[in-house]
Design a protein that fits this description.
By secondary structure, this protein is mainly alpha-helical. Among the domains are: 65 residues; 135 residues, no CATH class. It contains 12 helices and 4 strands. The strands form 2 sheets. Strands 1-2 form a two-stranded antiparallel sheet. Strands 3-4 form a two-stranded antiparallel sheet. The chain is globular and about 75 Å long.
Length: 299
C-alpha cells in the first residue's frame, strides 16, 4: 500500500516523504498537505483505509503467534540464539516438528536443503556444488536472514561468518552460517538446552516484547527482567563477554588449513588414480602420441 501511494505521488512529481513512516502520524499529516487531483486524493484515502484494516488483522495474527510462542519452551529456547526472533523460532518449530525424527543434525540440514549437492560417477572423485535447495524453502530463507543478523553481533557465529567470507565471499558465508544455525537448533532442541553464548538481558527483552505482543499490559515504574538491557554498562559487560568467546573461536580455527581449489583437488584425484593403476600391474610404455608422451598399457 505504501508503494502504491508513493507511486501516485511520483506521478505528480511530488518528492518522497521526508518522514520515516509514510503511513504514520507525521507521514499522514504530510500527505494531507500535498496538492493532488481529487480522484487521486480519494485513491490515497482508500489505500490508507485498506492499510489500517490489514494492520488490524496482522495485529490479531501476531497476538496469536505470540501466545503460542510463550506456551512453547522450545521456541523460547531458540530465541536465545542471536538473530532468531519470535517469527524465526516459530517458523523453525513448525518446519521441524518432532526433532527426534532426525537422528543427527546433518539430516536436518538436508531436510532444509542447506547441504551441498554432490556429483559423482562410479569410483571417480566427488564434486560438490551449490546447496540442494530441497525441502522447506521458507524455513531455509528465514535461517539465511537470521544468519545475516547473527553476523552483525559479536559472537562465535560472527567469527565463523568472517572466516568463510574471507575465502568464499559474503553470500556463501551467509548460507554456511545458516547451515551452522540449523546444526545449533538441532542440538538445542534435542538436548533441551539454551544457547551457550546467549546474552541474558537481550533474551529477557525478546521475551518481554513477545509478552507485549501477546496482549500483556505495560507496567510502568517496575523493573522486570528486561530492565537490565536498558543499562548501558550492563549491555557493554555482556558484549565484552561474547567478544571474548568470539576471539577464542577465532584463535581456535586460526591454524586450520582450508581445502584447496576444485582444480587442485581434481588433479590430485587423477594422480591418485594413475598411481593406483600402476600399482595394480600397469606399466608405462612408448606410444604413437604426436607429443611422444608415454601412455599406460597393460601387460
Amino acid at each position: 500500500m505504501k508503494n502504491v501511494i508513493q507511486s501516485i505521488l511520483h506521478s505528480h512529481l511530488i518528492p518522497s516523504c521526508p518522514h520515516a513512516d509514510l503511513c504514520g502520524t507525521k507521514g499522514r499529516s504530510w500527505l494531507s498537505e500535498q496538492v493532488v487531483p481529487q480522484d487521486e486524493r480519494l485513491a490515497i484515502d482508500r489505500h490508507l483505509r485498506e492499510f489500517d484494516r490489514l494492520g488490524e488483522d496482522l495485529q490479531v495474527i501476531e497476538r496469536d503467534l505470540a501466545r503460542s510462542a510463550l506456551a512453547d519452551e522450545g521456541v523460547k529456547r531458540l530465541m536465545t540464539i542471536p538473530g532468531v526472533d519470535m517469527t524465526v523460532a516459530l517458523a523453525m518449530k513448525a518446519a521441524i516438528g518432532d526433532v527426534s525424527r532426525f537422528d543427527d543434525p546433518q539430516k536436518l540440514v538436508s531436510y532444509l536443503g542447506l547441504n551441498p549437492s554432490v556429483r559423482q560417477s562410479g569410483p571417480g572423485p566427488a564434486y560438490h556444488g551449490r546447496i540442494t535447495k530441497q525441502g522447506r524453502g521458507h524455513a531455509r530463507g528465514m535461517l539465511v536472514e537470521a544468519a545475516w543478523a547473527a553476523a552483525r553481533a559479536p559472537r562465535p557465529l560472527r567469527a565463523f561468518f568472517l572466516r568463510v567470507r574471507a575465502r568464499r565471499g559474503q553470500h556463501i558465508a551467509a548460507v554456511a552460517t545458516a547451515r551452522k544455525l540449523a546444526v545449533v537448533i538441532w542440538h538445542l532442541l534435542m538436548k533441551g538446552e539454551s544457547y551457550a553464548w546467549a546474552r541474558p538481558s537481550l533474551h529477557a527483552k525478546k521475551l518481554r516484547d513477545v509478552e507485549l505482543k501477546a496482549g500483556s499490559k505495560a507496567v510502568h515504574g517496575q523493573k522486570g527482567a528486561a530492565h537490565a538491557y536498558n543499562i548501558k554498562s550492563h549491555r557493554e559487560e555482556e558484549r565484552r563477554w561474547v567478544e571474548q568467546a568470539e576471539g577464542a573461536y577465532a584463535r581456535f580455527v586460526a591454524g586450520w588449513n582450508p581445502r584447496g581449489p576444485r582444480k587442485a583437488r581434481t588433479d590430485a584425484a587423477k594422480r591418485g588414480a594413475t598411481i593406483e593403476a600402476a600399482r595394480q600391474g600397469s606399466h608405462l610404455g612408448p606410444c604413437s602420441s604426436p607429443r611422444g608422451r608415454p601412455c599406460a598399457t597393460g601387460e
